[in-house]
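Ticket 4471: requesting a sanity check on a complex prediction with protoporphyrin IX containing FE. Repro inputs:
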Amino acid sequence: MDIHILFAKISWILLIIILFVRPLADIFRWKFLFKILRFRKKLGIICGISAILHVIVYLYGINSLSSYFSNSIFWKLDNFLGWGSLALIMMLFPLLTSNIFSQRFFKRKWKSVQRVTYLTFIFTGIHIFLIAGNWFYSLLPVLLWLILWIWAWKIKR
Ligand code: HEM
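Returned structure tokens:
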């Protein structure tokens, strides 16, 4: 397996864990879920770094590291690369603000900035779906998360 694919898989699995644990904890209130919640910030940082490594190693491998921003193939939304780039940009917001300084700076707005992760998750789901059309591995987690999120929101309301 290519090393960039390994980083991609790590990032995707961590994204799924990070996104699922909050609604699952709100719905089922199992203790171990609350334990995972405490590590969510750290998991998010590993997830973000893995995604960046996935992209850097891939671009380096095809000699496109320097032309990434100027080559339109990476930015058009008619292919999986464009959706990956969109996911990557969205991931930078929560990643760069996953620290105590940003938490103090944004105060109550900090959580809203972190919620941009939702978009990262959806865009990554589309990115993976467009590669092989495997909806089970790509869009199903997004759909399940959406159902859990609405369920948890109804409970908290
Ligand atoms: C948040 C950002 C991103 C995440 C989380 C992510 C995640 C993934 C995942 C999970 C896969 C499927 C791996 C597998 O086979 O199991 C994948 C494949 C891939 N991604 Fe990304 N990706 C991101 C952004 C990008 C970007 C920006 C690019 C390119 C500039 C990119 C290029 C690729 C390529 C080339 C593949 C393999 C396609 C193939 O198998 O033919 N990804 N990515």
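Notes from triage: Residues 5, 8-9, 11-12, 51, 54-55, 58-59, 74, 81, 84-85, 87-88, 91, 120, 124, 127-128, 131 surround protoporphyrin IX containing FE (CB under 6 Å). Leaving this open until the requester confirms.
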